[in-house]
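ok so i was messing around last nite and threw this chain in just to see what happens. nothing serious, just curious
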Amino acid sequence: MKHTPDFPPSPDSTKSARDWVKTLAAYREPNQWRSAFELTVSIVPFVILWGLAWWSMSISLWLTLAISVFNALFLLRLFTIQHDCGHGAFFKQRALSDWVGRVIGVLTLTPYAVWRRTHSIHHSAAGNLGKRGIGDILTLTVREYNALSRYERLKYRLYRNPIILFGFGPGYLFLLQNRLPFGLMNSARYWISAMGTNLAIVAALGAIWYFGGFSALLLIFLPTTILAATAGMWLFYVQHQFEDTHWSTEEDWQLHDAALEGSSHYIMPPVLQWFSANIGIHHVHHLYSRIPFYRLTEVLRDHAELAQANRMTIAESLSCARLHLWDAERGQLLSFAQARAIYG
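result:
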């Protein structure tokens, strides 16, 4: 999915990934008023739609469900704001970003400190074959897969199956797995984050059940949460799981090269780009994670080479769901069928 610009190379085309980091530093400063505005236009409609869905239960349960489905888009946007807070990119004051992230974490069912740490690990090791397992989607090489027993191959196939990954996976991750600080069990700090978030979630759900009954949980809370989680899972998947992504051994791995070459530029219609808070401009985000999401479009406007790099449309991304194994020899992500055809 790496497209070459159809215009003469600019002086920027000679830049290495490390050079781009110096250029992108100019975009890191958040605008306090813009950040407050983006938060307001995300959380206020979310709360209003929740209220409308609640009110509509007395009129039509189908209307309630429809409103809840639409509200999933605002919850997705809130998660991306929480994501920026975790990178210290949303407000100039880190403490303010952290508290906004913690509050949103209750809405997204995501303990903020736990997620911030695991996501930091993801950024510091993306594309490194020697450091897989935390904050990423497990990807085996062809050689590793072929060395597995039949039972272990079946487990990996089930794990990578789209029905599991995008059907059951989002609900499991956000409703169940996020309740404990997996991968960080030895730190009291992350237990406090997980348990504090859990207590706030239980209190909120208890209030919803008390005042709205089981119907409010079933027709408002669950659809909004699950659909937002599913959309988020898909976005996270296509950001790194595409044919020409980047993986290398720990000895050859280089942070900035992996960030630029191993992250996609997901092209979406403007309305979806707004609801996903520009998270599709992921190659720039991985190169410089301190850039606020609303400034990522400035980067593409000012630097045509980055605007053309790693472009992938929604139609093109659908084929990524069948790619499961990294072929170190060819430097490509393959499907099980492709790997079998090539290596037997």
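not much to say yet. Confidence is low (pLDDT under 50) at residues 2-12.
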